Amino acid sequence: MITQVQEGVYLIDTMALGLKGFVAAYVLLDEKVALIDTGYASSLDVLLSDLDSIGLELSRVDYVVVTHVHLDHAGAAGSFVKFATNARVLAHPKGVKHLVDPERLVRSVEEVYGRATAACFGRTEPIPPERISGVDDNASIPLGKMRLRFLHTQGHAPHHLCVYEEANALLFTGDSVSGTYPGFPVFVPPSVPPSFDFFGAVSDLRRLMGLEPRLLMTPHFGVRRASRDVFEDEISLLHWWRDLISSEKERCDDVESITDRACEALAKRFGVYVKEVPGYVRLNIKLAVEGMVGYLDRLATRG
Question: What does the pLDDT read at residue 181?
Fold first, then answer.
């Protein structure tokens, strides 16, 4: 399903894993056309159908921007550029090698999720090296009236960037902000393994707040009004989450048990009651737990 946010800006619900409101991509139409994130490879048909429904010829797509290489954001990029033959993929310089040769990335996903679940994400196709470029921090490209500025925001992952559309003050956040999921409407911190950096994530949020964006275009999920309070809430959530996981880790070193407590604590914090947390949501919360546990372990090792 594709929804117009404003003139020239559309949100695509990629129907990730068959779920509504789980993973979003965005398309910007100006003199040039940019797609921001693609969703899982298994969402390719939805992506192509939605773009066709607004009359967009794929040959018009100039840029495919991936906020980072995680498969819910970049999984379909390699397949998509086979159809969008004029498009160039733009990514964080540290992400380029993983998109050109995704074998190591896919193997890592299989280790985290298991092969059966990873297979649901679809086949991640490599991107020809001549069709992808790394973008520097603070680099920008014009689309016409719209202009995209790229900001390296590496708290979530070393290969992560955000995109700021300057003319309309739209911030395409990637996973620099918390995510919320259908069936359990809490905000889950983006502290996934293996490289989450707490202080980096807080620094990213302060930098993004300084842009004074009007809207946050989030992948999980949808458009949020931006304000200083929203960013301060995100920073507060990260501090609360770090303290919660640290406390639970001292009591019990079992990730499953910590995840159970984290689900309960998130439900209480956001005033949500459900009989059972949906399995795919619990998995995302577990990843957020594992990422914070990994960060705390690295911190302890460094002394």
Answer: 86
Burial bucket for residue 268 (CB in 10 Å: 0-12, 13-18, 19+):
exposed
Q: What is the 3 state secondary structure string of the chain?
A: CEEEEECCEEEEECCHHHCCCCCEEEEEECCCEEEECCCCHHHHHHHHHHHHHCCCCHHHEEEEECCCCCHHHHCCHHHHHHHCCCCEEEECCCCHHHHHCCHHHHHHHHHHHCHHHHHCCCCCCCCCHHHEEECCCCCEEECCCCEEEEEECCCCCCCCEEEEECCCCEEECHHHCCEEECCEEEEECCCCCCCCCHHHHHHHHHHHHHCCCCEEEECCCEEEECCHHHHHHHHHHHHHHHHHHHHHHHHCCCHHHHHHHHHHHHHHHCCCCCCCCCHHHHHHHHHHHHHHHHHHHHHHHHC
Class of domain 2-235: alpha beta
How much is the pLDDT for 303? 59
Q: Where are the domains of the chain?
A: 2-235, 237-302
Check residue 39 and give its pLDDT: 97
Task: Give the gyration radius of the chain's Cα atoms.
Answer: 18
- Which segments in the chain show pLDDT lower than 50? none
Contacts of 125 by beta carbon, 8 Å cutoff, 6+ apart: 41, 78, 79, 82, 102
Residues 6 or more apart in contact with residue 254 via CB below 8 angstroms: none
Rounded Cα distance, 42 and 11, in Å: 18
